[in-house]
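Q: How would the structure tokens look for this protein?
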Amino acid sequence: MVLPARQQGFSLIEILLVLVLLTVIAGLVVPNIIGNRERANQNATKAQIQRLSMAIDNYYLDNGTPPERLEDLVKKPADAANWVGPYAKAQTLKDPWQGDIQYQYPGEHGEYDLYSYGADKTQGGEGKGADITSWDEIE
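A: Here is the predicted structure in token form.
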């Protein structure tokens, strides 16, 4: 007597089990990836503020005073006789969330203040929406 060949394939239970496992794994991995991205954006903004601070210092050394606006680091202002820039690229004036890096001269926390409003693009905030400032690094 010849036995029929057994059909190959997955049962419905096996397919459902795989789908449940994939859902659980995705539920654990995706939040970590999103959290890491926000942390990376915050760290990139801190580094960007430090680079802009160095560019402002270089501008100051060349011209005797800090720039009135951040744009003066990119394009020569009329009153900067010793300008040897550009001191920064235009894209460094925006944070990773495409918000403008804020600049205040004279500053309240130092000779000048640099800060980003963070992911929420509004002043203040907590967590991923917290402001990132040049003076937090000093204090």
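The helical segments are 12-63, 135-138.

Residues 12-63 form the longest helix (52 residues).

Upvote if useful.
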